[in-house]
Design goal:
554 residues; alpha/beta; Rossmann fold; 6-stranded parallel beta sheet; 38% helix
């Protein structure tokens, strides 16, 4: 006989889970008790806020391809954790959020901290459910794991009534995950794709998503190189294709470079693999007409629900991205100059002017591109500062980027902690704005306790940069709610046992970073960034002046 908590934990271990993140609560004490006996097999990373815990689970799922686990209590715990669920959904990252729930005898009475989680998460998660009978734990958990990892991966929310978790049952736990074969492309579909490619004059490959195999990514690169076709990464998925490859020409995302916009707009054939056509990747759905694009479109996705959801494809192929890439054969065409021009424009995009800032991020990124190991993991939250890890770093085949498609501030620090939990031997570098950092800086405590301490670069300019940029463009000179007074970040980081330094000028960065890299307890470097250096190619003053000039001409 086992109680529900034991049955849940033993089943998770059988599914392959080894790490979990969370904040304790009285609503799932039976699970916490079962985790006590699972230490070393299924570890519980104690977090400081449920938002940080859910971000860690979302990032863990994105990095490893296996569901990130998060445990939170009912009511406030669940509402705090909702941000990670939203992020995992938009990132197509596998995740399981377990929420303690009021007892089944109280449901529907608005009991203490009661929420209907099916209703709350119904449009946010891939699936939201509740286990009311202890005997159904293995059944529902097996389904949840499958839902989270197949098709378009995503988050599953499972509510756990308190009395269900303490109930006893003789039902056996799960013994292994389901072995489900991924969808493969039909031969006729591959033949049709080759015909469309051979007839094209300006083809482009648009790729992204989380569920690629190393073999699939290598196959796609070989196809693109042998066929001389340019490859564009979807928003924040440039780590899924070797940026050193002559086929790679940039990212379709926030701050999309002009040559990438032109490439997608002017293409006569787009081969979209494993992308969901988000707003950022399509420049607000302007680069392709909705619902029928001017460009011919081959849309390949492991979820049939994504094909035709926004754009009617010329050819829709229900297949996992890796199996499709491995089925492709090189094609010949007269588009070499098209690919070469796009590659040259991508390489030229790294030539940004010196920044009007005590610490010049152009110089910093040049150093980091040469210094960071090939298997580095970069993380970031949201803000103007993300242009540096997203547009000024070149991801090799072993490097990874954990960055939220949801545009959620505060993701970078928890994601960096999760990466160190998952793979402690790798260097993990988090880029955070000062506002972004303060969304989840308390998770430095989680990092300290777990021994998972990354290197964190705080780009400290004293403002909410993205909102300030919009403010200066639309209401120039009328600053409201975007200037911050910050704490002593160095003192704060040291209190969490991190190595910490303030970097006042560019020439001090290299030595400071080397000390950070040598630290056995992680590091926080507080970089002195001027508010003027709001974007790589336009200062705050220039932005304001342009807005005033535009108003005068109206």
């Amino acid at each position: 006989m086992r109680n529900g908590g034991q049955l849940l934990v033993e089943s998770l271990i059988a599914l392959g889970a080894s790490k979990s993140f969370g904040v304790p609560g009285e609503s799932y004490l039976a699970v916490l008790d079962a985790l006590h006996d699972a230490q070393g097999t299924l570890d519980f990373v104690l977090c400081r806020n449920e938002g940080g815990a859910s971000f860690m689970a979302a990032a863990y799922g994105k990095l490893t391809g296996t569901p990130g686990l998060c445990f939170v209590t009912r009511g406030p715990g669940a509402t705090n954790a909702s941000i990670g669920v939203h992020t995992a959904m938009q990132d197509s990252a596998p995740m399981l959020l377990f929420i303690g729930q009021v007892g089944t005898d109280m449901i529907g009475r608005e009991a203490f901290q009661e929420i209907d989680y099916r209703a709350m998460f119904g449009t946010v998660a891939k699936w939201a459910t509740q286990i009311d009978q202890v005997e159904r734990i293995p059944e529902i958990l097996a389904r949840a794991w499958t839902v989270a990892t197949t098709g378009r991966p995503g988050p599953v929310v499972i509510a756990l009534p308190e009395d269900m978790l303490t109930s006893l049952s003789a039902v056996a736990p799960l013994t292994a995950p389901a072995n489900i074969s991924a969808p493969a492309p039909q031969i006729a579909a591959i033949d049709e794709a080759h015909k469309l490619l051979q007839a094209a004059q300006k083809p482009v490959i648009l790729m992204g998503g989380t569920n690629w195999s190393d073999e699939g990514r290598a196959a796609l690169e070989a196809f693109a190189l042998n066929s001389d076709i340019p490859v564009v990464a979807a928003f924040r998925y440039m780590d899924q294709f070797d940026n050193a490859s002559s086929a790679f020409v940039g990212e379709a995302g926030v701050g999309m470079l002009p040559h990438v916009k032109a490439l997608l707009r002017d293409a006569d054939l787009i081969v979209a693999i494993n992308v969901r056509f988000g707003e950022m990747t399509t420049d607000g759905y302007t680069l392709l007409d909705v619902p029928v694009p001017q460009q011919k479109l081959i849309h390949v996705h492991p979820s049939d629900a994504e094909i035709g959801k926004i754009y009617v494809p010329t050819l829709g192929i229900h297949a996992c991205p890796s199996s499709f890439a491995k089925a492709l054969k090189p094609v010949e065409g007269q588009w070499g100059a098209w690919r070469s021009a796009a590659r040259d424009a991508y390489l030229a995009s790294f030539d940004a002017p010196a920044q009007p800032s005590p610490v010049d991020m152009v110089t910093v990124m040049e150093y980091l591109r040469n210094r960071l190991p090939e298997d580095v993991v970069l993380t970031n939250g949201a803000g103007n500062f993300t242009v540096w890890p997203n547009k000024f770093f070149k991801f090799g085949p072993k490097a990874r980027l954990l960055a939220p498609q949801s545009g959620a501030m505060g993701y970078g620090v928890p994601a960096a902690v999760a990466a160190k939990v998952a793979e402690p031997q790798r260097m993990v570098v988090c880029f955070a704005g000062d506002g972004d950092f303060q969304m989840n800086c308390q998770e430095l405590g989680s990092a300290m306790q777990a021994g998972a301490q990354p290197i964190i670069l705080i780009l400290n300019n004293g403002i909410y940069g993205t909102i300030r940029a919009h403010q200066e463009k639309h209401y120039p000179g009328r600053v409201s709610g975007t200037t911050m007074e910050n704490p002593d970040f160095v003192a704060l980081a040291k209190s969490y046992n991190f190595h910490a330094e303030r970097v006042e000028k560019t020439e001090d960065f290299e030595a400071a970073f080397e000390r950070a890299a040598a630290s056995l307890t992680g590091a926080v470097l507080d970089l002195n960034i001027s508010p003027e250096a709001l974007t790589p190619r336009q200062t705050l003053s220039q932005m304001r002046a342009a807005a005033f000039a535009a108003k005068e001409t109206v």
